[in-house]
Write a structure and sequence with these properties.
The chain is mostly helical. Helices cover 62% and strands 0% of the residues. The protein is built from 14 helices and no strands. Helix 6 packs antiparallel against helix 7. The protein is globular, with a radius of gyration of 19 Å. The protein starts with 7 loop residues before the first helix and ends with a helix.
């Protein structure tokens, strides 16, 4: 439905979001601990012991790292019993992603029942796509792994930022209007936040191009390809979207290793659908 055909409430919601985009101080900044951890993860001289100490300052982040390391989403010969074990098993790239996931979730704290309900909806959408991307990145051995996973996660930032616009408003959108607002404002708001946080422009470019199923990204598998494959499967598996183009028509599919190309009865990658339970388990941990 076009915005012009929507009710007056929707037009008010659009105005509220537009005002936030013009006054970016209303949007959250990354916390200092996130900036410190990201810097430490990039610092070759930062010892594992020092990094573990920094993570332990945030018990909820430490718990997420432990759960992720022992998740069925990752095929590992042994379980992690300590935080140090978990961090070593996951590696720097995955830790980089987890720090960002945790920080973003803690930034968008909703106070009212209506906004909390919408936050859960937005976070689930973000986490579903990211979980599939983690799996595909792992299966394809794509390097550096953090690029597609972080891009996938950041691409849905705008869905959460939409809610920030209403934290001081008496009236909040219903689910239908929230979904419509996300479709309209997710990419612009995600771009605004990524620029505010001074993140790599590659993430902005990927966000802008996501959803263009016919996009030509060249002869080799790229982060954009993995983001598209992740979005496709998240929409099919969790949102039950049934009007997507055939997976085999996508350039990203053609660039997958032959071992990952077999499809299930629904036309999805068998390597993904066979691990749906592991993906759902992971979603319960983030």
């Amino acid at each position: 439905m076009e915005t012009s055909a929507r009710g007056s409430d929707y037009q008010i919601y659009r105005q509220v979001i537009s005002q936030v985009m013009q006054n970016q101080e209303q949007l959250p900044s990354l916390p200092s601990i996130t900036l410190q951890l990201r810097a430490a993860l990039r610092d070759a001289n930062c010892s594992p012991a020092r990094l573990t100490q920094m993570v332990m300052q945030d018990p909820s982040l430490a718990a997420m790292i432990m759960k992720t390391a022992n998740s069925a989403l990752y095929t590992r010969p042994a379980q992690a019993h300590t935080l140090s074990d978990a961090m070593r098993m996951l590696g720097t790239e995955t830790l980089h992603d987890l720090v960002m996931f945790h920080s973003v979730k803690s930034l968008f704290v909703m106070r009212t029942p209506g906004l909390k309900k919408l936050f859960v909806l937005g976070w689930q959408r973000q986490a579903q796509k990211t979980a599939v991307c983690i799996l595909l990145t792992h299966l394809t051995h794509f390097k550096p792994a953090y690029l597609p996973v972080t891009a996938c996660f950041l691409g849905e930032l705008g869905s959460l930022a939409v809610l920030s616009a209403f934290k001081d408003q008496a009236q909040v959108p219903n689910v239908t209007d929230y979904i419509a607002l996300c479709k309209e404002f997710n990419k612009p708001l995600a771009t605004v936040l990524m620029r505010k946080w001074q993140l790599d422009t590659l993430y902005i470019d990927i966000t802008r191009q996501t959803g263009d199923w016919t996009l030509n990204t060249g002869p080799v598998l790229t982060p954009q390809d993995l983001v598209h494959l992740a979005l496709y499967h998240a929409l099919s598996l969790f949102s039950k979207v049934d009007d997507l183009p055939p997976l085999t028509a996508m350039q990203a599919y053609e660039k997958l290793p032959d071992a990952l190309k077999p499809l299930d009865k629904k036309g999805l990658l068998a390597c993904v659908s066979e691990r749906e339970n592991a993906i759902r388990e992971y979603l319960g941990q983030v």
